[in-house]
Amino acid sequence: MLYITFVAVTVVLCPVAYFGFCFIVYLYDAKALRRFQNLSFLSGLSDIQWVWESIRGRRYKTLHMAHQNATIVRVAPNVLSFNHPKAATAIYGHGTPTTKSPFYDAGHGHFKNVADTRDKEEHSRKRRLLATGYALTTLLRWEDKVASRINALLNQYDKFCLRLDVARRADAIPVDHRRWMDIFTIDAIHDIGLSANLRLIEKGDDLIEVQNSRGQSYQCQFRKSLWGNLRIHASFAWAPRWYGLLKRLTWWDSRWQDNVAFNDIVATACKHRIQRHLAGEKLDDFFSFLLGDKNGVPNMLMLGEMTAECSVMLNAGSETTGIALSNLLYLLIVNPNALERLRREVDEALDGIEDTKVAPFARIRYLPYLKACIDEGLRLLPPSATTTPRYTPPSGQDIMGYWIPGNTEVLCPTYSLQRNPEIFSNPDVFEPERWLSDNAKDLHTSFLPFSAGPRACIGRNITYMEQQMLIASLVHRYTFELIAPDFKPAYEEAVTCSPGPIPIYLFRRDET
Ligand code: HEM
After folding, report:
1. How big is the CA angle at 322 (ends 466 and 180), to the nearest 5 degrees?
2. Which residues bind heme per the record (predicted)?
3. CA-to-CA distance for 21 and 12, rounded, in angstroms?
4. Atom 42 of ligand 1 has which residue's CA nearest to it?
5. Closest residue (by CA) to atom 3 of ligand 1?
């Protein structure tokens, strides 16, 4: 009885004591953050609301609604969100005094990768090391790798094609474009990054053989492992101090198993690549730049650091582009005028080539409307909708004329900024033409799909090449239909904001 009473009192008293303490801190308001609008009544008191929005996977939506009434929103006791281009420059721009926030510390082992490290010097060292590998001139050497994966994808898509003149629908099989875009990018980044030919596209599946830390082999699905890992991680990383405890309390959640599986995928891929190197194979891929510089001088990185860099490459290099490619084709299908204009531009560029199945990069690289469509897709549905938090320097920082004290977490929500009506006319409409207009240059200050400044995406050349080549090849070869005219993908946010299945019907243009 005594034991039950003790447990009951503790269960009641702990939350009361916690919120009582939070309320005192809120009233004391040492950082003067009470002047900003709250996301909800809880936001000034505790991280709970923000973590809850992350668990629900709709952080960007809730925040977007809050920003309809306020430019600055306090989303948690120590977190401010700014929906303004001036804030974007102050928070992310070159010369910013901000650093990455403790969000990036959550759940890490000994080695951090270029994306997660918060230390400016360590980041500069890593960025210098990786710069040549990610440079466009290097990437051009790997065009064949991308082309080979596009060719394999088109072979698969051909099998799904329907004939316009045949009665259909009841037994017609749609293609889940979303799933195939992930499989395409997973295959492509393994080849670009590690010279690994997984041939997942040919198999039509993302099942991979991996080894656990005890050397036992097992099979796991890349997409499920990565997504489960990202989903559970992003839910709790907004409360980094509580991350370890929350992980222990949710030990039963199978997504922690996905986290282990994704780490095994990366470690296995990295180990295979090193074995091939030790066997004397000369491979031309991103990993070769981790092993040594362009003159062949070894970098002498530890295995842990190389594995960490492979982890971000396989993660950021597949998920983000898979999302962008899925979103863009969906947006083109529901905007037939834009699709027609794009198709005319691509057809013209490919005119006169013998084999037009895979669009050669040199032919489509500078097509203005193709680039405008890609940018408009990234504006309207940015793969990274909110997750780029920064920390103000200990001495504090001026953001948009407000003095923000030191060690405050600050961010610009990409989704809201890129739909800010003061900057983008018809913000919710897909209008690639805006990127070809006279004021396009001004719009770029509020275009942050890759973030900005020293911590901006290092992989943007890769994603543009993949998107340009694949979208050009798709619109040139096929016409498309959604399974229902009013179909809309469902979105769920982890670190990225990912659409669910996008089932479409395909038709070969040369057969219609
Ligand atoms: C549409 C595609 C992509 C989008 C929207 C995107 C977006 C972003 C964003 C927003 C950041 C900043 C993250 C932060 O501040 O925490 C970032 C960083 C990064 N991205 Fe991407 N990315 C894309 C494709 C890629 C690809 C293809 C790769 C590599 C193969 C890649 C590798 C990286 C790396 C390594 C960083 C960390 C850079 C640093 O901190 O110096 N990304 N990306």
Report:
1. 100
2. 457
3. 15
4. 459
5. 320
Q: Is 144 helix (H, G, I), strand (E, B) or coil?
A: helix
Q: Pick the closest to residue 408 from 102, 172, 45, 195 (CA basis).
A: 102
Helix, strand or coil, per DSSP, at residue 133: helix
457 annotated binding-site participant: yes
- 10 Å CB burial of residue 347 (0-12, 13-18, 19+) is middle
Residue type, 102: P
To the nearest 10°, report the CA torsion of 3, 5, 11, 12.
Answer: -170
Question: What is the spatial distance between Cα 395 and Cα 454, in angstroms, rounded to a whole number?
Answer: 21
Residue 307, phi then psi, degrees to nearest 5 = -65, -40
How big is the chain by its Cα radius of gyration, in Å? 24
The percentage of residues in the chain with a pLDDT greater than 70, rounded to a whole number, is 96
To which residue do tokens 């001036």 refer?
A: 86
2 has pLDDT over 60: no
CATH of domain 31-508: 1.10.630.10
Residue 245 has pLDDT above 60, yes or no: yes
> Which of 155, 157, 199 lies closest to 176 in space, CA to CA?
157
From the CA of 353, how far away is ligand 1's center (Å)?
A: 34
